[in-house]
Amino acid sequence: MLQINPNLSDLVADAAAGLLASLQSKATITAAAPGRVNLIGEHIDYCDGFVMPFAIDRYIVIAGCANGTSEARISTALGDEIAVFDLSKPLVEGDPKWSNYLRGVIRGFQDRSYHVPGFDAYILSSVPGGAGLSSSAALECATATFLEGLLDTRLQTREKALLCQKAEHDFAHVPCGIMDQFASAFGKANRLVLIDCQSGDPELVPFENPDLTVLIANTMVHHELSDGGYASRRKHTEDGLAILGKASWRDVTAADVQDNWDQLGDPINRRSRHVVGEISRTIEAAAALAKNDFETLGPLMAASHDSLRDDFEVSCEELDIMVDIARKIGRQGGVIGARMTGGGFGGSTVTLCESRKASEIAETLASEYEKATGITPQIFASRPSQGAHLVS
Ligand code: GLA
What we know:
- By secondary structure, the protein is of the alpha+beta class.
- Helices cover 42% and strands 23% of the residues.
- The chain starts with 7 loop residues before the first helix and ends with a strand.
- Alpha-D-galactopyranose binds next to helix 5.
């Protein structure tokens, strides 16, 4: 029942073969960038909060080469229409729609005065799309890393992540925070990427206990983040901060929210309660994890989900069902904690569990979810993995 994560070296070989078959070109540069899962700290990366994602062992791979022209020609393993665009001018949005992630990143390089030469490329992915696992950040970071190879240059990791975030803002119109691109760019094997989103400093925290397994359960339901739900939540938090008259959410206490409940008004008061609560939960969770204190960590994950469901209203029935199944399995059955992960409105849940019970838990999640919804979920285990890199 547990899906096997495709091996990165197989993806790399398949991408080279795909490039040859679709564009008759030989790969000289290959870049890989992972998706991410977030253990806790949801919808607070744009509120100066703390978030605790890691780069998963699911990658977007781009294989390509310079083509001696001033055009980019890009094909994908999904058999999408080949994207062709002129690199002699600053790139703007265009068709096909998926090419905008690449266009946005290339534009970021052009804005830094790089002359991006013509290239052929082929894109292959093992990051499920629309599953709340940041396939778009993976595509952006893979593109940026590919361009580093093509231009024989290296950006600072933070600058690369910020360039990719700007591409998401300007070319995909999702006003995202920094979590996804930071996780994809900074990720390392056996490390969580604990990010203080106020200072913008990622800290790599060990996560290598073989007795712990992270299960990702894709509900297979998805609503586009760009449909306005994400942007409206972000706006609520900005309005809340303005009403509270504070410069940063880090300066707001739970009492501030309670004392100004009516003035904040619904739903901004509930959105605000989520932000303040989630910031402190994430700090507590990081401390609990460092001490292997799972009795504290589990309830924090549960409280995070409930707050996202009731106060921030970014969960959905399917996510709630998946989380409830994990809760019913409970500590006795090996589940430490479970919650929705990522932007929400569909997507995936994350279940932290005991490794020796992981397969059994995955079976139960899959069968009970299917019984309740009629949908077959995708369930796989993931370990923190290497972030965006050039494959030699
Ligand atoms: C999306 C965004 C992130 C973050 C999460 C919610 O994944 O891209 O910046 O806000 O939602 O935590």
